């Protein structure tokens, strides 16, 4: 299992490294990469989620049990991180970055590894994970930004953030199509599928471009706190929740895998847009991406097959 996980991570690491190199050699314009991130976040990734959720073969998957485990573990860790905020002695905007680093996950890496481990069944598992975690994480993060971010929105602003989030809308659309047993229109489905296929490579390139190694060394305590929650506390909470509901072996591996993934580059975008500490978020993202190369295979290897 650990060999398969490392094998699945190799193209991920190579694309991240390519993004890092491109940003510093070929595509050096500062204006390009934020726009590429925005394209991926608002168009490509939603297309991937919508198509994968609408077309996923979930008949043989423990959808409800898997979703319950993921939502319960995410909420539990989120509550614990907020409860521990006074001990961290951080500014409010810095805490939002630690919070995101503790519960957000990198969809691109998760889908890639799940597909590498279990093929099309792994992609279906990944779709269920995204359907459960993406809305949960986005709701929690928007609420935390509303309380601790420097640009604190009103109640109507919070509601607007929730109902207009492209990832939440895409997941809701895919879940609705799946629940109603409806298909995407023949002329539209291939276009959405093609857009979704571009999400992972572009997203991974953007992650590489966003890496800031110098900045990552400047915030040892916040990075340590968020990474401990992400790579230790979250997988442990997921494993315990899975034992309670009796989640099967493959579903258990995927659940723990997704909860042990490093935080996403979209965390940086949200930090910039909602009044968080964006430089700290970049440092957390860079460090967790590197730590994930060792942490993700290790966590997966520790799950009983």
UniProtKB/TrEMBL annotation:
Coiled coil: none annotated. The keyword Transmembrane helix applies. Keywords: Cell membrane, Membrane, Transmembrane, Transmembrane helix, Transport. Pfam families: Mem_trans. It is a multi-pass membrane protein. The chain crosses the membrane at residues 65-84, 105-126, 132-150, 162-180, 192-215, 236-260, 280-303. This is Malonate transporter. The lineage of its organism: Bacteria, Bacillati, Actinomycetota, Actinomycetes, Kitasatosporales.
């Amino acid at each position: 299992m650990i060999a398969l996980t490392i094998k699945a991570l190799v193209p991920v690491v190579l694309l991240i490294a390519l993004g890092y190199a491109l940003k510093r050699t070929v595509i050096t314009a500062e204006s390009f990469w934020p726009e590429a991130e925005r394209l991926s976040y608002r168009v490509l990734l939603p297309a991937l989620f919508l198509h994968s959720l609408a077309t996923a073969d979930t008949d043989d998957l423990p959808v409800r049990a898997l979703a319950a485990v993921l939502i319960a573990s995410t909420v539990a860790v989120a509550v614990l991180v907020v409860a521990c905020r006074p001990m961290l002695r951080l500014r409010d905007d810095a805490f939002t970055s630690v919070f995101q680093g503790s519960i957000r996950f990198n969809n691109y890496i998760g889908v890639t590894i799940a597909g590498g481990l279990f093929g099309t069944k792994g992609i279906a598992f990944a779709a269920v994970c995204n359907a459960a975690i993406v809305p949960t994480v986005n709701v929690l993060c928007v609420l935390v930004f509303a309380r601790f971010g420097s640009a604190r929105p009103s109640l109507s602003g919070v509601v607007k953030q929730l109902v207009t989030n492209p990832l939440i809308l895409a997941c809701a659309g895919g879940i609705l199509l799946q629940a109603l047993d409806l298909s995407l229109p023949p002329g539209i489905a291939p276009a959405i599928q093609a857009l979704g296929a571009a999400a992972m490579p572009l997203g991974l390139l953007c992650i590489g471009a966003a890496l800031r190694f110098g900045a990552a060394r400047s915030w040892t305590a916040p990075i340590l706190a968020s990474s401990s929650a992400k790579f230790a506390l979250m997988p442990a909470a997921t494993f315990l929740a899975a034992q309670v509901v009796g989640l099967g072996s493959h579903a258990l591996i995927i659940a723990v895998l997704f909860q042990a993934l490093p935080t996403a580059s979209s965390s940086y975008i949200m930090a910039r847009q909602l009044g968080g500490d964006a430089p700290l978020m970049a440092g957390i993202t860079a460090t967790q991406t590197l730590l994930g190369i060792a942490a993700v295979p290790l966590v997966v290897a520790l799950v009983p097959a």
